[in-house]
């Protein structure tokens, strides 16, 4: 497995998938049997559908979404990424909260286990949902800005 190529695939999922809406990067980055550590929705039969749905949710909630990969590490058969998403919540609800025009910054942490071809087979993440909910409803979430 080429670890550097796997890191490129992971970066593309965030920068091109979430950042630009290019869903083709999802299929290239995931093994067909990939699983996630949290449940899929009823309309998400597999990890690829789940990830494409997440991209759609963020992009429709924040049409000006910008995504940056702050850190990207790889060792053996795993890649870890720290990702920052920024946008203005002017679109559809985000984590169940209606849009109100607020600027939103989301810091996420991801660990992806890879197969022998460098494709994601298992995913663990903290996607920042709790901090976003607190900020959007006027609560206090400790976050660096």
What does this structure look like?
It is a single chain. The protein has 145 residues and is α+β, with helices and mostly antiparallel strands. It has one domain (3-136): Roll (Nuclear Transport Factor 2, Chain: A), CATH 3.10.450. It is built from 4 helices and 5 strands. It has helices at residues 3-20, 24-29, 47-61, 129-136; strands at residues 30-36, 66-75, 78-88, 103-114, 120-126. Strands 1-5-4-3-2 form a 5-stranded mixed beta sheet. A hairpin with a 5-residue loop joins strand 4 and strand 5. The protein is globular and about 45 Å long. The N and C termini lie far apart (37 Å). Mean pLDDT is 89; it is low at 140-145.
Write a brief caption for the model:
The protein has four helices and five strands. The protein has helices spanning about 5-20, 25-30, 45-60, 130-135; strands spanning about 30-35, 65-75, 80-90, 105-115, 120-125.
């Amino acid at each position: 497995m080429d670890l550097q190529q796997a890191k490129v695939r992971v970066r593309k999922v965030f920068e091109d998938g979430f950042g630009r809406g290019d869903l083709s990067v999802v299929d290239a980055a995931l093994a067909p049997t990939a699983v996630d550590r949290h449940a899929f929705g009823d309309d998400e039969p597999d990890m690829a559908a789940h990830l494409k749905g997440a991209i759609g949710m963020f992009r429709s909630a924040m049409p000006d979404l910008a995504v940056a990969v702050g850190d990207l590490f790889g060792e053996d058969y795993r890649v870890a990424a720290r990702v920052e998403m920024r946008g203005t919540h002017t679109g559809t609800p985000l984590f169940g909260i209606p849009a109100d025009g607020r600027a939103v910054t989301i810091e996420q942490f991801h660990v992806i286990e890879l197969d022998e071809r460098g494709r994601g087979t298992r995913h663990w993440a903290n996607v920042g949902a709790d901090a976003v909910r607190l900020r959007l409803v006027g609560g206090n979430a400790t976050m660096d800005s």
